[in-house]
Specification:
Blueprint: H1 15-29, H2 31-48, H3 50-63, H4 68-96, E1 101-103, H5 107-114, E2 120-124, H6 130-136, E3 144-148, H7 154-164, E4 169-173, H8 180-189, E5 193-197, E6 207-212, E7 215-220, H9 222-230, E8 234-241, E9 246-253, H10 264-285
Parallel strand pairs: 1-9, 2-5, 2-8, 3-4, 3-5
Antiparallel strand pairs: 6-7, 8-9
Helix pairs in contact: 1-2, 1-4, 2-4, 3-4, 9-10
């Protein structure tokens, strides 16, 4: 990923040639060979990606209260985990789809909402591999409109479409004229699902300041404002890597007591705070699978 500042570019590195090469490699040799070469390259990113490394270390110190040494080695592990989940996408693109499995003790929360006529919001995060859920979760009940950022390469766009379309997932690109919001609102009006990342601010001024670990950070209100305007349910979905080919999906309701009596703005902020509590609980259990490589803490 392009990790240079608080502005997330949302693109996968490697270009068309590099990404095609990965698909060819995994098709013939499997994803583990990619892991091997990734391990060799990680020191390069740790040495030359100074801003991202410092931000990751700061996350471990501020949220988990680690010492400097433990924070550094946890950052190393995070880089390894990040590389693996990125490579897993290309393994699926190469035809290794059937090798990956998802387990879940909470999928009934998602399934119950699928049977109801109203739409709902899936609040995603940069934990584990949220995108792989769209590749492995096959359903034809409701359309899922997924908000995506940045200008991905041609090969990424084509492979994403090939994997997501059969699963009833529609990608909605962020537009400067904000027209993507009309698409998302229309999806909810039609009883479909929208999914948006809710743990990172993309240049928006609409945010809420929350206690996060031993510090404070700003989190976006936008996803929850969309849900509050339509008064639809919200669930938080976390997808963590457990082994080479196995992921665990955790689904939790984002519910706020007596929220119906709150104005729309306050209801959205309350849901954002509730989501942050759920996120914090998950990353405390999976500290090296939250991939936020920039300094988002409030000084």
């Amino acid at each position: 990923m392009d990790i240079k500042s608080n502005k997330w570019k949302g693109t996968t590195g490697g270009g068309n040639f590099g990404q095609k090469s990965l698909i060819f490699l995994f098709r013939h040799f499997g994803v583990r060979v990619g892991y091997f070469f990734m391990y060799i390259s990680i020191p390069f990113y740790l040495i030359f990606g100074r801003k991202a490394r410092k931000a990751s270390c700061k996350y471990f110190r501020q949220v988990h209260h680690y010492g400097k040494v433990k924070a550094f080695f946890s950052t190393w592990t995070t880089y390894n985990n990040f590389g693996k989940v990125m490579l897993d996408r290309f393994a699926i693109f190469s035809g290794q789809h059937s090798k990956f499995t998802m387990t879940s003790d909470t999928m009934h929360v998602f399934n119950d909402l699928m049977t109801k006529p109203e739409g709902f919001l899936m609040a995603g995060s940069h934990t584990g591999n949220f995108e792989i859920c769209g590749y492995l979760l096959r359903q034809d009940i409701k359309k899922i409109f997924a908000l995506v950022f940045g200008g991905e390469s041609e090969i990424m766009q084509r492979q994403r479409f090939a994997q997501l379309a059969p699963n009833n997932v529609v990608m909605v690109a962020v537009k400067d004229d904000m027209s993507h919001l009309f698409t998302l609102n229309e999806a909810l009006e039609n009883g479909d699902i929208i999914t948006m990342p809710a743990d990172r601010i993309f240049g928006s001024s609409k945010s809420v300041r929350c206690n996060f670990g031993y510090a404070q950070a700003d989190f976006p209100v936008g996803p929850f404002a969309v849900a509050a305007l339509r008064n639809v349910p919200v669930i938080a979905v976390f997808v963590f890597k457990e082994s080479t080919y196995r992921y665990n999906v955790i689904v939790e309701k984002v519910e706020v007591e007596n929220s119906d009596s709150l104005p729309t703005k306050k209801r959205a902020e309350a849901m954002a705070r509730k989501y942050v509590q759920l996120l914090e609980r998950q990353i405390l259990s999976h500290p090296t699978q939250w991939f936020n490589f920039y300094d988002f803490f409030v000084e």
